[in-house]
C-alpha cells in the first residue's frame, strides 16, 4: 500500500466510530466541534505544501503542531505540561533512532520502518499516559520531532518533506493504536476487577 492511504482509511474509520456513538470512549473530554474542526482541517490541508529554502512542508505538519500546542495550553499545571513535553521529546528521540536502525538493517522491519516505529511509540505512550489528550499530545510531539530530525539528517541524500504521506500514516496509526489498546486494557482491567470482587463476595458468602 502506498504511503498516505492508510491515514485516510484510519481517518474514515475514526469518523465512523465517532459518529456511531464511540466518541466518549475514544476521545473523551474533547468536544465534537473541536474534533470535527480537526478532521475538516486535516482533509483541507493535506493536499497542500509549502516550499521553504528547498525543503517541502505539508500543511498537515503545521496543523498537528498547532493541535499539540492547543492541547498543552488547555492542560492545567506547568509541571504537567513540562512532563508531557519531556515524554514527547523522548518519543521523538526514540522515533528517530528507530528510523535510523530500521533503515540500516531492513531485516528487523515487520511492515514498514515508519509503521513499525509508529506502533512501538503507541505501545510506549500507553505505558506512561492513559488519557486521550495526553496521549495525543505526546505522540504528536514525538512524531513531529522524529520526522524533523530524520529529514534534517538526511537532507543531503534525499529531498526533505516534512509531514508527508508517511508522517500522516504514522500519526493516525499511532493515535488509533494507542486509543484502541488503552480501551481494551481498561476494559480487561475492569472485567478482571469485577470477577475478583464477585469471587471474593461469593467466597465470603460460603464461609457464612
Quaternary organisation: single chain
User: How far is it from the N-terminal to the C-terminal residue, by CA?
Assistant: 63 Å
Radius of gyration: 20 Å
The low-pLDDT segments are: none
Strand and helix order? HHEEHHHHEH
Shape: globular
Q: Which strand-content bin applies to the residues?
A: under 5%
Continuous helix count: 7
Class by alpha and beta content: mainly alpha
Describe the 3D structure:
There is one protein chain. The protein has 208 residues and is mainly alpha-helical. It has one domain. Helix content is 77%, strand content 5%. It is built from 7 helices and 3 strands, in the order H-H-E-E-H-H-H-H-E-H. The chain has helices at residues 5-26, 32-45, 59-74, 78-104, 113-128, 132-153, 165-207, and strands at 49-52, 55-58, 161-162. A 3-stranded mixed sheet has the order 1-2-3. A hairpin with a 2-residue loop joins strand 1 and strand 2. Helix 4 (78-104) runs antiparallel to helix 5. The longest helix has 43 residues, at 165-207. It is globular, with a radius of gyration of 20 Å. It starts with a helix and ends with a helix.
